[in-house]
Specification:
alpha+beta, 264 residues, 30% strand, 2 domains
Length: 264
């Protein structure tokens, strides 16, 4: 399970989705029937299937006579968990679908990824598709932060995000901005990169104005031959959780999300 302790934790975290995944060398022999055979192994837990556009650029190995498969979603009955596969990626999601859904915490997401990625690895070997050559790890937290009261005015965004402070002066020509987006990236020592992207949005379920804060860590699976995936993901999770605490105000952490002093 997780290797890091004493991380900031919240009784009402704003996280609405966690994506835990790996990228690998393209499985050029993967065909549509293979996805159905894989589904048969996990169908009891993921009874629904959806198609989506592949993530990232199309692999160079494909030509017009051998078009890439779509990204396949295998969705749990409650729709909160999703296994995604495409020719060069395996992703495991937890997400909020309805009011009252509660984030099950990182260890549960990690356990789900480990369980079903092991099934996929074994399936690839048994189907003669070759060994999975891992290229990259990725871990993403997506947060929805409601804009109510004073937060409807972007002048007050700094009350949530202290690094965003709009200068006010009678000499200024420009008014308060009507839209705000912000993107920053940080090198995670030798572990990879953490990107934080902030943008405004309207929540589909209730029309509520929100900020969407996406925190995504990526790193090479070949950066250190002695480093295993579990250790990398533990470090990535620490960067994301501590990074979220750095980028948001202590008051918001305390008053909006019920900051605790235990593990995530």
């Amino acid at each position: 399970m997780s290797e890091v302790s004493n991380l900031p934790s919240y009784g009402r975290p704003p996280v609405i989705e966690v994506v835990y995944g790996v990228e690998f060398d393209t499985l050029t022999e993967l065909r549509a029937p293979h996805t159905g055979l894989f589904w048969s192994q996990i169908r009891e837990s993921f009874p629904s299937v959806q198609h989506a556009r592949p993530v990232g650029p199309l692999p160079r190995e494909f030509d017009f006579g051998n078009l890439p498969l779509p990204r396949i979603w295998f969705v749990s009955e409650d729709e909160n968990t999703v296994v995604q596969i495409q020719s060069n990626r395996f992703l495991f999601n937890w997400r909020v679908v309805r009011d009252g859904d509660v984030y099950p915490r990182f260890d549960a997401v990690q356990s789900g990824f480990q369980k079903y990625f092991a099934v996929f690895q074994q399936f690839v070997r048994n189907s003669g598709l070759g060994d999975l050559e891992l290229k990259r790890y990725e871990l993403t937290y997506i947060n929805h932060i409601e804009r109510q009261g004073k937060l409807k005015n972007l002048r007050n965004a700094s009350s949530l995000f202290p690094d965003l402070r709009w200068r006010t002066s009678t000499k200024r020509y420009l008014p308060i901005p009507s839209r705000l987006t912000w993107s920053v990236a940080f090198e995670m020592d030798s572990k990879g990169r953490l990107a934080a992207d902030l943008k405004p949005a309207i929540r589909n379920t209730d029309g509520q104005e929100i900020f969407v804060l996406e925190m995504k860590a990526t790193g090479s699976a070949r950066a250190d031959g002695n480093e295993d995936a579990d250790h990398w993901f533990a470090q990535a999770r620490e960067w994301i959780v501590r990074g979220f605490a750095d980028l948001t105000s202590e008051r918001a952490q305390r008053d909006l999300w019920n900051l605790e002093q235990s593990n995530d």
